[in-house]
Amino acid sequence: PLIYAAYGDKYLIESFSVVFDHLINQRATVGDLYRYLQEYSKVPSPPSLFEYILRTPAKQLRS
């Protein structure tokens, strides 16, 4: 299980839930999360990190 504290931030709770479900459905690993961060840091004008994760298939990062 994953435990996190949102400290009453309803937007964070809702948006993280969507991203978490997306990552589970993609069978993302900790390594995939690391690659997401690596690739995200290279994007010149990136969307939010959550949007980037939702738009980028984990499988794409593995190739």
TrEMBL record:
<protein>
    <submittedName>
        <fullName>Uncharacterized protein</fullName>
    </submittedName>
</protein>
